[in-house]
Amino acid sequence: MREVAALAKVSIKTVSRVVNGESGVSPSLVRRVIAASERLNYRHNLTASSLRRSDGRSATIGIVLEDVANPFSSALHRSIEDVAVQRGVLVLAGSSDEDGDRERKLVSAFASRRVDGLIIQPSSQDHSYLLSERRAGTPIVFVDRPPAFFDADTVLTDNAAGVRRGVRHLVQNGHRRIGYLGDLHTIVTAAERHRGYVEELADQRIEADERLVRLDLRGIERAEAAATEMLGHSQPPTALFAGQNLVTIGAFRALRRLGLHQRVALIGFDDILLADLLEPGITVIAQDPAAIGRTAAQVLFRRLDGDESPTQHHIVLTRMITRGSGEILP
Amino acid sequence: MREVAALAKVSIKTVSRVVNGESGVSPSLVRRVIAASERLNYRHNLTASSLRRSDGRSATIGIVLEDVANPFSSALHRSIEDVAVQRGVLVLAGSSDEDGDRERKLVSAFASRRVDGLIIQPSSQDHSYLLSERRAGTPIVFVDRPPAFFDADTVLTDNAAGVRRGVRHLVQNGHRRIGYLGDLHTIVTAAERHRGYVEELADQRIEADERLVRLDLRGIERAEAAATEMLGHSQPPTALFAGQNLVTIGAFRALRRLGLHQRVALIGFDDILLADLLEPGITVIAQDPAAIGRTAAQVLFRRLDGDESPTQHHIVLTRMITRGSGEILP
DNA sequence: TTGTCTTCTGACAACGTTGTCACTTGTGTC
DNA sequence: GACACAAGTGACAACGTTGTCAGAAGACAA
């Protein structure tokens, strides 16, 4: 910047004004400064700028995802990015791998780089550690799952309602013995989905049968094994509800291997790429990650613009996509 | 930092030494400084640090992907992140959407934030604009596709060889009329894959038939339409090679709709989630995005560690995964 | 002419760090 | 006891910017 100022024969302050597009610089000087910048290949240093600026903004936000490569998380990432670019804000992303410790380390690394805001898909069981960030003025929005021991804006899917919708669909098709396969019960969303199953059965006056419920199924193989076992019982379910992505795939594999995929109904939570090309196509309760990410980013930027209203809790609705597997009759 | 120094009754320089883990500070002072930092909830400011540091490192790299939410790109992202975290480096990611202009804007935004290095999955047709970054000392690595008008380290898939392997597999199974469906020919990798098809047919002494080649198929629908049309000819192909992800899905849809999925062979480039659950399972030439990302990150960090050897060009091999669709006989 | 106001410009300090260098101890050697 | 040397510590400037404030130059009215 000093060199540009020297070449343009102005003070560095005037260069700063031009670079920041401030008004009150005569057109002739603006031209000279721009010409000098281009000739010297000058690039504005945002880190120095944010250090000096009164608001200290870095035009960067940090997001903690479960895994940047996981389809749900990366869809969140993309829709957050789309809102951010419109404001010239860049996104630092990191994967927590369902590990509270990595989540904390990422937040700390983001904080060291003075991000303007944080969006977190939480893994940790206790978010009181975020109090210091909050005190430093960093807005924080939680997506997909609520925080624990910490009050903050959230954007969540209505998990229980989505499951209830799917279970009701199965009941309406005449099913009474509906199996449930769920993810780790410690994950809040998984617990919510299981609650939806239990409540809908109760509402439909169908007696709960604990032999038809298997939780803590992490990954495709576990789910496949559990489904295979459940279908081998003397009174097997006539329909299955799978509470998560990979669990759905595992359940479908089990049905296929047992030759039951055209006889036992299946509904899964979360859409699956190519689900329409399978035989039968898999009926799912689809989340809307793009809407979740977009909403979260909008809430975050409103906070950055000074919105100090009480914490907001947004719910994004699910949608049932019928493709065949959920419409198999008992 | 000043406050911490005051509370610990030392100079701010000593606090700096402790924060950076420099040797030569007596244990008692280290304890006092750490205690004071914790009491004041002090957080090291990396932006100020990198501004002052002689090497100017920000412990942040920037990556330009085609789309952070696309499975191939996000797998790259994840494997780059895995290498970066080990060095305490964070990743700024952005999507170019196959648009050279967005690519340039992202690079410029990264440069303003003084990233230590760049990894680019290029969209632009001319990378000479990167000369100024190079001159500023920022190492740059290209992944998936080579740069144009610019010499830099690359990590690429051997596209042509992968396609040849698949086509050879079809020929060995007795096919002579093999259709080719490809992505935009302006994308270098797509052109390479098409070249592999042409060359392997020539090697196998099979005459090229231009009615069996359709390029510039962007997206599932286009591919589905082109495949449908090609299969309707008087002398239809007995096998199809699909040069890209979505093209494979489109081709499979067309085969299914025409009831030919058990009669016409299909091999696709790039693996597809759930391809094993379809009927038949789809045989693919699988890339290894994790290996590409890992290698690229390793090359980048070696450059950051001072490696000034001539530009390196790494090739990551493909793997054929047979699942049934490629083993259908004519 | 003088005074007042507006518009443009620049000098200087400061943001939170770290590199440089000089100073103060303490230890060991002759 | 004098001296050299190592280890620990701090004062100060500097990194590249922007906020503050003051001053110069010109326009206009009295």
Polypeptide structure, described:
Two copies of one chain form a homodimer. Chain A has 330 residues and is of the alpha/beta class. Chain A folds into three domains: 2-44, 434 Repressor (Amino-terminal Domain), CATH 1.10.260; 60-157 and 289-317, Response regulator (Rossmann fold), CATH 3.40.50.2300; 159-287 and 320-327, Rossmann fold (3-Layer(aba) Sandwich). Chain A is 43% helix and 15% strand. Chain A has twelve helices and twelve strands. In chain A, the strands form two sheets. A six-stranded parallel sheet of chain A has the order 2-1-3-4-5-11, with helices on both faces. A six-stranded mixed sheet of chain A has the order 7-6-8-9-10-12, with helices on both faces. In chain A, helix 7 (131-135) links the parallel strand 3 (117-120) and strand 4. In chain A, helix 8 (159-172) packs parallel to helix 9 (188-203). At the A-B interface, helix 4, helix 5, strand 2, helix 6 and helix 11 of A face helix 4, helix 5, strand 2, helix 6 and helix 11 of B. Strand 2 (90-95) of chain A pairs antiparallel with strand 2 of chain B. Chain A binds a DNA duplex (30 and 30 nucleotides) through helix 2 and helix 4.
